[in-house]
Automatic annotation (TrEMBL):
One of its GO terms (biological process) is methylation. This is tRNA/tmRNA (uracil-C(5))-methyltransferase. S-adenosyl-L-methionine binds at residues 186, 215, 220, 236, 296. It comes from the Bacteria. Dual-specificity methyltransferase that catalyzes the formation of 5-methyluridine at position 54 (m5U54) in all tRNAs, and that of position 341 (m5U341) in tmRNA (transfer-mRNA). It comes from Zhongshania arctica. It catalyses: uridine(341) in tmRNA + S-adenosyl-L-methionine = 5-methyluridine(341) in tmRNA + S-adenosyl-L-homocysteine + H(+); uridine(54) in tRNA + S-adenosyl-L-methionine = 5-methyluridine(54) in tRNA + S-adenosyl-L-homocysteine + H(+). Pfam families: tRNA_U5-meth_tr (PF05958). HAMAP family: RNA_methyltr_TrmA.
Amino acid sequence: MSLNPVDITNYPAILEKKACAVAELFSDLALPTPTVFPSEPVHYRLRAEFRLWHDKGSAYYAMFDPAEPKVPVKVDQFAIASKAIYDLMPVLLEKLNSQDTLSKRLFQVEFLSTLSGDMLVSLIYHRRLDEEWELLARELANNLKIQIIGRSKKQKLVIDRDYVLEELQIDNKPYLYHQYEGGFTQPNGKLNATMISWAKARAGENAHADLLELYCGNGNFTIPLATQFRKVLATEISKTSVKAAHENFALNEATNIEVLRMSSEELSSALNKERVFHRLRHIDLDSYNINTVLVDPPRAGLDDNTRHLISGFANILYISCNPETLHRDLQILSQTHAVEAFALFDQFPYTHHMESGVFLKRRVKL
């Protein structure tokens, strides 16, 4: 069978229903009417992963229905995947099935693509990979013009490189990003660019003020926003993301950004001069004039310490992947800040998930 989005032709109606449901969740907060940004109805997802199911001497891509987790569903087509992934899937499968060394005990295939045409495929095995596998994998990578990584227990073989190079067009300007296998990246590339553009417009020009960004990842928002601030101080706890962020700053010649590998709680202690951190020895925190903070937290939203920290700044840009925790956080942040703009980004069409963006300004005390 083919695993395609549900009723592609009805996408506008599906999106309208979802957007209304999310807006209703925030009805008690009297937010502005949200601006809704739709996705492309097909070929929007830059990442995909499938089990490789072996049957009668050949293998096929498979996914599993949560209602029947032990029954593989054959995937002949996957229309929500990027066009690059969609086109590569049958070609790669044919190559794998024609070569026993590449298909033997292969149980999972992961695709990571970009809007700019780069492609990385991870092949994951239940056996140790040898020189013969590496030779054939390199031949396959050259033939298909892709990057390949082979993985098995305690083993990672990289054919050329373990990242893709993305180029995003933000407000008619190109930005380059190394996106690593296993690192977090936004799966809907076009809406990611739209989100960044929206955030830039809300932030405005701040030639004499600075930006604080928590959960900066690989610099996805950081680099474009840095063009609108004097300096940027960013934090991230993932080692892979910090590595990618430093590389991406260099790729884009962004020289006004400092990224710290520390939690928001630790940063709060440093800013309040409650603790001295050796890793901050090269940074003069007193030199920052922060007027805006950007947060893009995981699904759990913000913790008490982070909410308290960001409430001390004049402007808050909050990007959320979970309307429920965003609603909880806004109930608290609304005591000190007013919501000036509200946006919904349909990163995951045909699902209940919705990405949100909120811009808050500190209330004027009378």
